[in-house]
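ASSEMBLY PREDICTION REQUEST
Request ID: AP-0331
Submitted by: J.K., bench scientist
Number of chains: three
Total residues: 816
Priority: normal
Notes: Please return the full assembly, not individual chains.
Input sequences:
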Amino acid sequence: MERPSGIITITTDFGERDPYVAMMKGVILSINPGARIVDITHQVPAGSIREGGSIIKETYQYFPSGTVHLAVIDPGVGGKRRPIAALADNHFFVGPDNGLFWPIIETQEHSEVIHLSDKMYWMREISPTFHGKDIFAPVASHLSKGVDPFLLGEKIDNPTTIAVPLPRKENSDLVGEIIRADHFGNLVTNISREEISEFLASRGCVIKIGSLVLKKISTTYGDVPEGEPLALIGSSNLLEIAINRGDAAHDLGEKCKIGTKVTIRFANSATN
Amino acid sequence: MERPSGIITITTDFGERDPYVAMMKGVILSINPGARIVDITHQVPAGSIREGGSIIKETYQYFPSGTVHLAVIDPGVGGKRRPIAALADNHFFVGPDNGLFWPIIETQEHSEVIHLSDKMYWMREISPTFHGKDIFAPVASHLSKGVDPFLLGEKIDNPTTIAVPLPRKENSDLVGEIIRADHFGNLVTNISREEISEFLASRGCVIKIGSLVLKKISTTYGDVPEGEPLALIGSSNLLEIAINRGDAAHDLGEKCKIGTKVTIRFANSATN
Amino acid sequence: MERPSGIITITTDFGERDPYVAMMKGVILSINPGARIVDITHQVPAGSIREGGSIIKETYQYFPSGTVHLAVIDPGVGGKRRPIAALADNHFFVGPDNGLFWPIIETQEHSEVIHLSDKMYWMREISPTFHGKDIFAPVASHLSKGVDPFLLGEKIDNPTTIAVPLPRKENSDLVGEIIRADHFGNLVTNISREEISEFLASRGCVIKIGSLVLKKISTTYGDVPEGEPLALIGSSNLLEIAINRGDAAHDLGEKCKIGTKVTIRFANSATN
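STATUS: Completed
Returned structure:
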């Protein structure tokens, strides 16, 4: 197993107004005073396991191996879902077993999932409504100090899965969808650079997003005139629909939004 | 006196848009390069000493003993209120003497309050409008390095007090109020788990919040159907009024808001 | 050259919702696990080089010498603008060559600007749309570890300049303008304490801001009755127009906004 990096990232849907994230940081630093804590975001839409999972998947790989990624998007807090730690791609993931880490687990050949059951690594008193503070934060902190993850509970082979919208082939088209709008209004799709890499350099293509049609994958925003829409690989290494110096989420409105289908037809087969 | 933990928390009403909090962090790190800084929140409603004080009281205890809690909610900046450091419950509190730390001080048997008057521990130039940067940040940083707090100024025994709305007995009822809405719309009251602990397990009760009547204290959100209101102990260890998978602050509107009276009548005496 | 402080500040227009800032932090910590990272703000208005530059200029000086200030306000990402590092006033500045650091460079007698061209200090793969993560973050991290800045590329003497609105003398008046509204609604001008220092103590003056006329420069908010407008030196050491316990940006509306001219006529010459 990877040596811990001493870094703990935190992803939640708690917002920045309340002291809840700070309470978790206090718990972490009480157990491991040397932990370095990095916020990924606390603005995941409330309860959105799918968006939270996608953000963690896009981000974790930029941290050193052995980093602990603590995430609390947990609509079922206090219910029966298990608390888990997952070990995948030399990183640790700690949070609720509600599918949040499934997008990462399902793409790794080897991974381990541990049902957190040993209360020795929890806070002494467990609030039924804030497992983030009472279970996940202390477990993440112990992991960052080098506690053997297999001491935290028993291995399980049935973590909760969720249907992650993955791009699929339809005849010779590649069909994905818009999964998120970012701060700039760029519409992020679920199509990664890798999935279209062979086409980025060599061949032309036509991209249809609802009723919007784009004739190529651009390299950067300035490749089209100001105010014009374009498709390009964005900051998360995913295809995104943007408007040069504009806000695509706002300007394209109902035409292109979360869930809208994105079809890439490569030039060879394009008859349209 | 407690050894410093090297951690400094910061609570303000400055928001996240301006560079003011970063200026304070620069001052702190210039004096103690090893300080570890944790933001509690910068979204306290502007000038709300009562809400700021409540948030610090709920949060500080999760940090290690010897942590310095720097807080700047300071409507009277530049006026005559004194700058103070308070030592209570093995933690340090640094900020304006306007009642901000009174909720913590008044519940501790032993505490010390020091009027910060020795300018040796301040910035060389003191802006009349930003004591956070020029007095509180450098003092907090010196404390985090182990400077004896009694060197910072003279002990005082008359810190400014504020009326903190505490729950009270009325006949056999317990009467509190709603003090805050959090990011999820949960309505946090001033009634703590401890105050109702004997009733949580053993006896039924009726909770009246304005015209809303609830028949029990639930354990977790899922104890009632989606969309239904409930009362439970929330993330701050305080009784809160919530709606399962809903936003109580929005959905209950005028019926339940900050200041609304919350009455707990225990089953033995409930005739209603 | 200054020894690095090990601190890296980050200023962007990315907002707090997306994981982009966290990706940069992951890259930084992968290269220099001991780096201490401080956010200045991520709420610079999108693409506003002028406001971003002003904020960095007001803030950097509170950090220890040898701090690296990483800034990504970069409307031309992927275009032809160069990536640069600037050395000025014993601090390092890393970001796009689009004028962002010009307000700092132009006021320093000695400074060096380096065109970042040695790809050894970049990420292996460079995304055309996210130089913050792929060029600026790794370069900042290397600088924070003590890499000689002159190894990062070649010195240039033609960094991009921008017209910074500086206050000017008009007859015996000093004429500046409002450059920003802060979280409290205080209207920050481009007139610094230094520029009016001789008048602060000794002589009266009349300040005109659009149609609003103020008869003095106050020391603190409480110098005027609640609800009344005033001019004073604010938290950034700049003259600001405020309302005691009010929100000047909101209450003064169209009368006083970003770009509104601010004229200071000193008492000797005041006939109005």
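REVIEWER COMMENTS: The first strand of chain B starts at residue 7 and ends at 12.
SIGN-OFF: pending second reviewer
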